[in-house]
Amino acid sequence: MRLFVSALALLAASGPTLAQDPAEDWDLTVNAERQLTLATLDFGDNILALRCQAGTLDLLLTGVPVSTGALRTARVTIGAVANEEQVWAARPGQPVIGADEPARLARQLRAGGDLDLRLQPEPGTEGVRRYRLTAPASAAAVDAVLTACGEPLDEPRDLLVRVPLEPAPTWLIQPRPIWPAAATAGEGAVEVSCVVSPDWGLADCRAEGEAPAGQGFAAAALASTAAARIAPPADGTDVRGRILRFTVRLNRPS
Fold it and tell me: Which of 169, 177, 175 is nearest to 230 (CA)?
């Protein structure tokens, strides 16, 4: 999960928010010294921010209830994304959450329209919080941020349905990466997305995130997906042709 938290998170107070008036346009900030390109929409109680800094892209929503955990589940509708269950990253103690697939959602915002996000409650808290934020039909600022991070303005995989978060898929053959010979860290983690193939294997796999970067973990994780297979879901759902997202963890051999 990727998440940027700064003074931006303090600009919006937490609280229940329903439909907001449309913002006039994205505000775009470019700071070459900080390698920062930032586009924001201010809705009063909430701020929607798309940020590229030093090659890392984030899509943030502020003004949400303060979280106690690091992850929040949400139902999201925007553009081609329809009532999709997603996991957003949170920073405990701060009223902000960050999208797991920021580039994909940013591309849906290019044409404008309503972002409908229903934030599911944490245990022991109030019910669902719904945020309906109308983005203007102005792609210039969004395009500037995506371009700054080297992200395409169009991606056919955005239209593919995601494999549901629950129940988690059962691995018939789990990815087992080989430790990179040049790695100096003690462990690594790679966020991977693949298309489930007709034979329940994995195709068109991509590394969506790598930590730490530059040690060969992404390449090792992707190589390990060639032989991986999942079991058909027990409930009969056919997830072939859908995008499966998962994390490959690597540990230095003892």
Answer: 169
Tokens of 196: 């489930």
What CA–CA distance (Å, rounded) separates 198 from 214? 33
Predicted TM-score (pTM) above 0.90: no
Among 124, 120, 141, 110, smallest CA distance to 64 is for: 120
DSSP assignment of 144-177 equals HHHHHTT--S--GGGGSPBPPSSSPPPEEE---P
> C-alpha 128: how far from its chain's center?
20
Tens digits of residue pLDDT in 120-142? 998 877 789 999 999 998 889 99
| Separation between Cα atoms, residue 50 and residue 65, nearest integer Å | 20
Instruction: Provide the token pair at 93.
Output: 């103690």
Coil, strand or helix at 140:
helix
CA distance 23 to 5: 22
